Amino acid sequence: MIGPAGRMALALSLVTAVTATLLWARVALLRGSIGLARTATWICLVSTGAAGVLLDLALVTLDFRLRYVADNGGRDVPLYFRVTSLWAALDGSLLLWLVIVAACSAVVASARRRSTVWPWAMTVLSGVTVFFCAVAYFAANPFDPVAVPPADGPGPNPLLREHPAMGLHPPILYSGYVGLVVPFAYAVSALIAGRADRAAALALRRWTLVAWTLLTLGITLGAWWSYAVLGWGGYWAWDPVENASLLPWLTATATLHTLLVRRPGHPLWTWPIVLAAGSFLLVLLGTFLTRSGIVTSVHAFTASPLGPLLLGFFLLATALVGALMLWRLPHFGDGRRSGLGIVSRAMALHAQAVLMVVVAVVVVTGTLVPVLLRATRSAEVTVGPAYFNRAAVPVVLMAVLLMGVAPFLRSGRPLRQFIPSAIAALLTIGAVGLLAPPSSVLALVTFGAAAFVLAGLARAAFASPRPVRLGALVAHAGVALLAVGVAASSAFAATTERRLGVGESTDIDGVTIQVLAIDRKQDATGMRVAVRTAVTDHAGPAVISEPNLRYYPGHDLTVSIPAIRVGLTRDIYTTVLAVAEDGTSATVRLTVNPLVGLVWVGGFLVALGGALSLYRRRRVPAPAPEPVLVNPP
Q: Is 524 exposed, middle or buried, given 0-12, 13-18 or 19+ CB atoms closer than 10 A?
């Protein structure tokens, strides 16, 4: 019963999405009934939500008659990970994507403060929903049956059942990722209508901020999950799938900065349109990369027939948006001069947006070049972290420095306001350089830049005669702390790798590890080898930890689960790489990561700053929306 009911729910979703698209277009063109269009949108959400609930019910009850459950379910899988298996594979993750798109459409359809371009925005949203409904029903239907139901299944990928973040990271990341469709819809609607009023600008800002906040939180959770599960001691590898989530975050960040310049006729009013549209186009590009099998990544899905469909939709959307921009953008604005001063807060915001776009270009180039060379010349080319670190990190540092400069670039504020921040930066660079010289000059500059920003933020918070936006203050402080965590864990990390027998030990950077025992255990999921160790930090008391190797026969995969001793100033990270067949010795990697906790603290503060920025004192709305972007007839 679950299979036919699920297929019927997806079919209803497709029919109502098509109906909603036509009805919203009628509202935009002929001022048709809003009630009918809104009803179709809500029915689409209910039917897609029902499909998601039915698939989860099939996973929980182990209905192996469905192909998706036969491939990703298992009797040995705990209930929590049965539920999260909904987004553990390609078809289920696309269904989650569809539910989020439908939810965004329903929320926008129920908006109380409506823009004059709102019907066009709903038409665009409904059109995107139609595409993903069609993909879910015709090409990636998780309710397709199997000819012979198995007695048991292999369960989800072992990497997706080793950490509770599986229930948080994908839904949050997807919500931010897919949520960028709403700013995209408003940007495209402004291009179609040739105008964008204040209500559209407000909706563009709020939805970009919501999506950006969720995307920030999702990326941070993903980095923490990678650090805790993958066993390599790091949290960001410039992997193609990681880059696919970073790219729209960069352009969404640029969008938010340009939206802070609110004067009508300002040239930056065209930037949010371009950046909001580009952010979702990058989402579509990332969706193609991660779900087509064209890139090799631990995070990517396996090869699938969806590649041509996703690529075609991306190219079509890019062509349509590009044509609209060529047609409409030259006429946006009211023709007045922008009045941007060379030394002004507006110019600093403009420069930060430009730097974010430059970083995005660097990242997308390094991500796509191997793919294009493989497709056109059958050449295997790898672009590693060295390229991204050399090309992107200096630009990011420039943006970080601008965060400390921008608050003081207001009329009547002399340049001597920078002196305390500059002193703090120089003292920090001198202290770090003398006490613990890093392996990289770039790391030293990062410490100085972070001190410059934090000192400037403190001065702006406590000594500024103007009120400071708490959200921006918290988010920028989070970026500075994140930069310190990345620099410290990269420049000062120490690693050793040795084969140790029972009773033998090794040490690095004041940390000693001794192997106490090696135990093999067989359970329902497969073989588990635990290496019991005693970890001593600077002659302190020994702490027992058990890194282990787990073999999952259903996937023929071995997973190394690290043991992490978390501290205020550094983490001690132990991983088992191999175990001798006779169980007398093991190859152990010991890594000391200083200040890596600041990466998580900084990331969560950035997300918190975005959330705080959503709560602003509401102004009394104008009786009618006033156009600020006009395409003269």
A: exposed
